[in-house]
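User: structure tokens for this one?
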Amino acid sequence: MRLIGNVLWFLFGGFLCGLEWLIAGVICCITIIGIPLGKQCFKFAKMSFAPFGKDVEFGGGAPSLLANIIWIIFFGIWMAISNFVFGLLWCITIIGIPFGKQFFKLAKLSLMPFGAEVVKIEK
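Assistant:
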């Protein structure tokens, strides 16, 4: 079921969502200071292309908080808004609710990506 969900996700919005993370990662990697931010973006781009069967655990300390504040100012708020709007659009139909929930998960991740880890859901 995860495979079907991930394929449909990629075709109906996941590609654009992952592309946002890739573009943000490339922009961050332009500067030497931004390389750690870019590496985190690439990790979440991979998750954004296929989010079914994965979850995000949040944590981190003061360095993560500082990185998240900088992130929100430059990229996070816009990515969170786009993911939230797509989530609302998908939740209009009953069939789209699982996709909407994934967009909401990514909207939260877009606000606080640093200090977060992707974990596989074992069922």
